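Continuing the batch. This is chain 6 of the set; chains 1 through 5 are on the previous pages. Same settings as before, nothing changed between runs. Recording input and output for traceability.
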Amino acid sequence: MLEPRRLAARAAAQRMAAVRGEAVGETIGYSMRMERRASARTRIDVVTEGILTRRLQNDPELREVGLVIFDEFHERSLSADLGLALTLDVQQGLRDDLRILVMSATLEAGRVAELLGGAPVIARAGRSYEVTTRYVPAPVGSGLERHTAAVVLKALREEEGSVLVFLPGEGEIKHVARLLQGRAGEEVCILPLYGKLPRAEQDAALQPARRGTRKVVLATSIAETSLTIEGVRVVIDSGYTRVPRFDARSGMTRLMTVRISRASAEQRRGRAGRTEPGVCYRLWSAAEEAGMEAQRPPEMRQADLALLALELAAWGVSDARRLRWLDPPPEGAYAQAQELLQRLGALDEARRITPHGRAMAGLGCHPRLAHMLLRANEDGYGDVAALLAALLEERDILYDEEDPDVSRRIALLQEMREELSAGHHAGINCEASRRILALSRMWERTLHVRAGQTPARHTGHVLAYAYPDRIAQRRTGSQREFLLANGRGAQCASVTPLALSDYIVIADVDGREGHARIYSAARYSAEELVKQFADQLRTEDRITWDEAREAVRARRETRYGALVVKEEPLDVRAEGRCMQVVCEVIRERGMGMLPWTAAARQWQARVEFMRRVEGEGRGWPDFSDAGLCASLEKWLAPHLTGITSAAQLQTIRLMEILQELLPWKQRKELERQAPTHIEVPSGARVALDYAAGAVPVVRARVQELFGLEETPRVADGRVAVVVEVLSPARRPVQVTQDLRSFWRTTYQQVRKELRGRYPKHDWPEDPLSAGKRGEGRHTCRRYSTGERG
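Output for chain 6:
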């Protein structure tokens, strides 16, 4: 009989044995890692999920088993889904007489019955009492813990009996306990119940309250199913739970607080009606309940699948689709899990299990830890590896400790082991320590670890075998931020000696984007990395742009993943990629990095003007900044020999380079159709500004334009230039493309306004006659780019 948790397995066995009037270990027994109470008389063995998988791998026929019961299957744990898939495979291929029973109070029975080949569905209402539901949503601005504590006090005043409170996790439980302390009454006992508690404290929470007292049990979802807490007739449900979510991109698992499903809410509500009528306070509204998910999503969809992939490989299955699943493993996450196993040497190129992988599977722990145990033992660090694997599998041994240095925990455990005791140490979780020491001894026996006392300072070396992708390097200038080998960023919560290490190996880190928080890690060094992972180091020459120096930087880097372990300078001038890097920087920053002169910008604008006038496809190149930027390698790179900095870039003769881009015939055409200057009746040569807009602009004082009746034109007379008429002080007084109209309609008003201001200048009534020189009339037919015509 499969149960999802150790506490549930133990409680179920004790309950069934009590019904028979027997002790546990007779007809009814239980089995879990490092704890077994069963005998030759045992007919029902209540096991935790990992035990079932190990039995299936060791005895695929399950020769002494006639029935496998999957209890609380609605929880849809990864191990339960895997166990059912393997058991169905045994039934189909080896044991057609093997019976399978799936049980749950809130199960989608139709889907499961179909998976079991049309199995009959047996519905049993069970004995339960009426439970009154009350919705008590939190007021605006009230936090979860504060509102929960207020409702607990309300329930204690309004109702009789003990109270079971569901909260997301250990942190919220401790906070609510502090809020209730001294306010609940002397007759009320506040008892926590969560997975990390010592067994004695868990048992205390499950026992009936002493005569004349009441108890308030503050629990996680551990109390949602399989447990009956005597005397409880009031349930207060926060509506939240904490679940692990695996991020396939980062390869990290993050604990997230999420809304429970409606099915979970019903399970929690049912705890109040186990032995008598009860009351359930739901800390949300009926409207919110309508938006909650109907069922809890299966763990298969959001879990790390590395262990599942290893178990399937050991079973002889590389393609998970060969088995029957209620929800098959997601293809992306499953493929990523297989890739991890290949990096650890557990699978070969064909994704078949290797001898190393089979040894890993036999250890029954996460593949990362199994690989670490095997490789570290080969290095002579088996004793540290056994302690470290046990510590990571169990829980932290230090209470309320923010220092993430795991080697400190290893040193403490080594001291306890030498003293043959895990008790009487201030600030240490003795129950957890005893379990860790027992589990480490089990692995030492399994691996035949050589006797010895490896110093705790080697913890980082050992941990690196489990998490080679989480070897991390402290960022330059930071006191607690690190870059991981997988390219992610992480940080310590505070500045500690560990946070100041140049290198660390991270065991536990959440999956947040950007700066994930480091919960446990160990010191490491570049020397250890180079020695331990020599076959995975790669050397490459990198030519990049140094923003601080504004110059090209060339160096030879030795890299491990995203980490630069070692670097040495190279002669930047000898590297052909230097030109390419300079071009990339110009493209990124823009053409303004080049030494533009006014003449060069005018040349660029004249060519662009001709391209617009002539139209695309007529042979005029794209001289826009975007066009030049796109083709830097063609026209600029040949002139960048020896250029390695922004300062040196200013020495190139940009005008000459741009002029060379036009063939001689096009240059002559440019001079003819897009001249740089025009001659005005005064005899002055006035520049044309092609960079001012789509049409070139000529700027001239009004006196210089006397006698010029028609607007000058360029491009074989196709384009009239824009004339900016200036005052004697060269301030604009009129902008026009129609000089004839200006003389007729606007000039007299300009004359009237400016004559008094500039009395020394001519202001004739007839400006066209005033500008005539010699015989005939100037028409400005001759244009020039450099010489007077």
